Amino acid sequence: MIAAAGPGVAEGGGAAGETIEAVAAAARACTVCAASLPLGPRPVFRISATARVLIIGQAPGTKVHASGIPWNDPSGDRLRDWLGIDRATFYDDSRIAIVPMGLCYPGRLARGGDAPPRPECGRLWQGRLRAAMPAIRLTLLVGSHAILYHLGKGSMEARVRGFAAHLPARFALPHPSWRTRAWAARRPWFETEVIPALRDAFAAALSPQGDPT
Predict the structure, then answer these.
(1) Which DSSP letter does residue 108 get?
(2) Which phi and psi (to 5°) does residue 141 adopt?
(3) CA atoms within 13 A on the CB side of 194
(4) Residue 144: what are its φ and ψ, rounded to 5°?
(5) How many angstroms separate the CA atoms of 174 and 122, rounded?
(6) How many CB atoms lie within 10 A of CB 28?
(7) Judging by DSSP bridges, how do beta strands 96-98 and 53-56 pair with one another?
(8) CA–CA dist 147, 199 (Å, integer)
(9) Tell me: the pLDDT tens digits for 107-163?
(10) 148: enclosing H helix or E strand
(11) Is-contact 65 105, C-beta < 8 A?
(12) Fewer Cβ atoms within 10 Å of its own Cβ: the N or the C terminal residue of the chain?
């Protein structure tokens, strides 16, 4: 397991076949966006060579920036509820990797709410960190930023409801912020169709079935 949350210096593109330790160290040391980050660089992510599920969210909030623990906030509680798992399972780095679209807290918008992930971050780290994890079976795209980057332009709602089109490799979800409660209440199919399918896909990805013997 490699968990990262720390400041450092910028890195460029990675070499083919680089080790997961090298990738993690480079990401942990990144300062490419330093001048635009109000609280400074603190990349928060978790990767491992044995992880089966990759969770790609938005970017750390202030609570996660302070703790260095991804999804360590009410949104994380809601995501764990959707998955039907406890904190111990969620933070088992040997099985679950967490790499947000923006590794560092991006600040606030003038009108309120967190700013979007820095665009440089996805280009620098999404492919490189994913390439270091060959055992990934399922990638959860959580929120519009992750969905847009990995699936291209389109309706988030259509991607979420049309989850079957992206299985078994990917599963699109709305961001589990407090606003999603009202969104889901107006869309009962999210609870009756999407959540059961999400839990099934998640369990299948973590299952030992199909492991090399």
Answers:
(1) B
(2) -100, 105
(3) 22
(4) -65, -35
(5) 19
(6) 21
(7) parallel
(8) 19
(9) 988 787 789 999 999 999 999 999 999 999 999 999 999 999 999 999 999 999 999
(10) helix 144-151
(11) yes
(12) C
